[in-house]
Design goal:
The protein is of the alpha+beta class. It contains 14 helices and 17 strands. The chain folds into four domains: about 170 residues, Alpha-Beta Plaits; about 50 residues, 5' to 3' exonuclease, C-terminal subdomain (DNA polymerase, domain 1), CATH 1.10.150; about 100 residues, Dna Ligase, domain 1; about 80 residues, no CATH class. The site of magnesium ion (MG) has 5 residues, from strand 1.
């Protein structure tokens, strides 16, 4: 147990649904449900607007539809979630090298491993937690997170859960028992309905009651491993360390100049050359990466880095060059730069893809049940429930691009037609148009970033 509340837990609020609302302005403030839309589908995430109707994660989709028929039902966009998650995790790593992602939308940070000064008071840690929440909001394009901190993972996790959504709680060292004991046992991570039932049968409802039960009685009720683990957690005994993911490999090159360079065309040419050198090295070492970083040292020796994360890994010199040029324009170099660098890093594949696979599989199963209108009402020119003649799959919520109308997303599809709403994270709510399902002007699309390219 630590003597300072130096373990922090960050949990993005209603993550998948929040990403959808970020990228689909017409859905902001409305109930949004992401998950498997097929007959056996379950809810992966419901927006807070949908939770008001009693919709919860892991609920059968059929029940969700009965409770909240007017919600937007989306099959989920893996690439957008991963891209956003990586941006948030990268921001956490700016703070401390010891970051343990536990899923797309959750991570522990060991603040003691960072260079963060005094962590002994709750006020100091509260300032750090608020800075993390602000930074998360910034790098994710406007997503909120709940943050908890304490002397152990257990306390940090429970604290962030308690302040959902968009809140923060730091539990002072020495107050753990006082904090935990009034809570229902179900607050302890890992105590599900089955364990809760068994504990109720031996008269245990709160963590305080749990703490007073002997280990042997808990082992008898729950089994050796679970009983012992729970007995320790009830005493707030938790010394699990924060374990960082394996180090991600990165390749970067940089050039220092004899004199400061302010000419934007010259700087761009240098960035282009650095990007090609990085890509040559990537190719030689058979690597690819998802994050492109530009480093700029200005005339006054201040050093600035900017990075952007792609949905998928790349070693394509055109992609790296384009992103590096964009990143260069993020920094004011008008007074002169004395160093430029370009790097590509491949983050470790910590993401538990298989947690999401069931949802993806369900979305795939929807190929057998097209004709379903996922969003809102039924446009006049669409009829629900008729098998699709065209084999092309337009899953509700998927990103598409039209040669004339630009970027949009699949609002609904059926009977050989697809309806698209043309809007992006940075547009206002956009118009809806319907096309033939095999319209050659319409294509599936994976955005490289949620910001519109400038
Ligand atoms: Mg979350």
């Amino acid at each position: 147990m630590r003597s300072k509340p130096s373990i922090l837990h960050l949990d993005l609020d209603a993550f998948f649904a929040a990403v959808e609302q970020r990228d689909k302005p017409s859905l902001r403030g409305k109930p949004v449900i992401v998950g498997g839309l097929g007959p056996r589908g379950v809810v992966s995430t419901a927006s807070y607007e949908a939770r008001a109707f009693g919709v919860r994660s892991a609920m059968r989709m059929a029940e969700a539809r009965a409770r909240c028929p007017h919600a937007a039902y989306l099959s989920g966009r893996f690439a957008a979630y991963r891209m956003t998650s990586r941006a948030v995790m990268a921001a956490l790593r700016e703070l401390s090298p010891l970051v343990e992602p536990v899923s797309f939308d959750e991570a522990y940070v060991d603040l003691a491993a960072g260079d963060l000064g005094d962590l002994s008071t709750t006020t100091a840690v509260e300032h750090i937690a608020d800075a993390i929440r602000a930074r998360t909001f910034e790098v994710s394009g406007g997503l909120t997170a709940s943050v908890g901190a304490g002397t152990s993972k257990l306390i940090a996790k429970i604290a962030s859960d308690l302040r959902k959504p968009d809140g923060r709680l730091v539990v002072a060292a020495g107050t753990e028992a006082e904090f935990l004991h009034p809570m229902p046992v179900s607050r302890i991570p890992g105590v599900g309905p089955a364990t809760g039932d068994r504990l109720r049968r031996i008269g245990v409802h709160t963590v305080g009651e749990l703490a007073r039960v002997g280990v042997s009685e808990l082992v008898a009720a729950l089994g050796q491993a679970h009983g012992q683990a729970l007995a320790r957690l009830a005493q707030a005994e938790d010394d699990r360390p924060v374990v960082a993911e394996r180090e991600s490999k990165s390749i970067s090159v940089e050039d220092t100049f004899d004199h400061d360079i302010a000419d934007p065309r010259l700087l761009q040419m240098i960035v282009d050359r650095l990007a090609s050198r990085v890509c040559e090295r990537l190719a030689r070492e058979r690597l690819s990466g998802r994050t492109v970083t530009v480093k700029i040292r200005l005339f006054d020796f201040s050093t600035h880095t900017r990075s952007t994360t792609l949905a998928g890994p790349t070693d394509d010199v055109r992609v790296v060059t384009r992103l590096a040029r964009q990143l260069l324009t993020d920094v004011d170099t008008s007074a002169g730069a004395r160093l430029l660098g370009v790097g590509v890093s491949g983050l470790a594949d910590w993401v538990q893809d298989d947690l999401f696979t069931s949802v993806v599989d369900d979305a795939d199963n929807d190929a057998g049940a097209p004709g379903e209108l996922a969003i809102g009402g039924t446009p006049e020119n669409l009829v629900s429930g008729t098998p699709d003649a065209a084999p092309r799959l337009w899953s509700p919520g998927a990103d598409v691009v039209h040669t004339t109308y630009g970027q949009g997303w699949v609002w609904g599809a059926g009977r050989g037609r697809v309806t698209v709403r043309f809007e992006t994270s940075s547009s206002g709510p956009g118009p809806v148009r319907t096309f033939a399902g095999d319209d050659p002007d319409l294509a599936a699309y994976t955005p490289l970033t949620w910001k519109d390219p400038s």
